[in-house]
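hey m, so remember when u said the tokens were messed up on ur end? i reran from scratch. heres the input so u can diff it against urs
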Amino acid sequence: MLRPDDLYEIVDESVATGPAATPKVLVHSLDGFMDAGQAGRVTADHLLEVLDHRLLARFDVDLLHDYRARRPEVTFAEDRFTDYTPPHLSLHLVTDDAGVDFLLLEGAEPDNHWDRFAGAIRQLNDLYNVTLTIGVHGIPMGVPHTRPLGLTAHATRPELVTRSNIWDGEMILPASAGTMLQVRLGEAGKDAMGFAVHVPHYLAENRFPGAALALVHAISAATGLLLPSKALLDEAAVTGRLVDEQVEASDDASAVVKALETQYDAAEGSVTRKSLLADSTPSADELGAEVEQFLAELNREDDK
């Protein structure tokens, strides 16, 4: 029977371990579950692009990944296949702008062995003296891109949630490896939390850097880590101008965004904003051909 430590391999043994090691935060972004605007993926990529880091451990994706459910990509070039891109799940040691180390787990969400995966993260957290685990991703919401992005925070202890949420009551949701991990860490008496940034539903399939920017700021606020954000801020400004131009060029798209603004402003300050959930907003068919054209043009601009 597989043990949790069968799922990963330590590739850098020079990092201090055990209770005497400096306490650290672990941030995780797992591809495969909901991630509107590619918010979690862009956050992880950004941190690895702008901060010093090194690989600590890699997971055995052959044990964790369902290749037929989520097939990797391969390039066909004239008469041959090239550039096969396998999935990965990697743990990095990252250093913030103040010289403080933290851990970043990024890559493919496990399809298999979830509880063993949770056990593996607990082992790694103990090994590197992790005191707080944070997950990040994006969720689609019926909100306009012209208003501040909201966040839903959740944690194993109420004291860790320092911002008000739009939710009240309970709901049953499909689990992800990340949400399961938070449950298991909480059961073990460990601190864990997460942030889900609210991405305008009409941009959910696009790279939306403003969502990653909101997550980077949330991580910094929760942990005290000094995380640079200028590159995301600049990219978000460019994307915002592009979206504005596309919206202004379409009467239907402008009407949809205006309606969302009115709805958002009317609900601002309420105890809850349940009406902003994406499934209560117009469907793609209801938005009409003009909005679909707007999204298609936006995708083409992103590919340039």
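this time it looks ok to me. Confidence is low (pLDDT under 50) at residues 271-275, 279-290. if urs says something different then somethings off w ur setup not the seq
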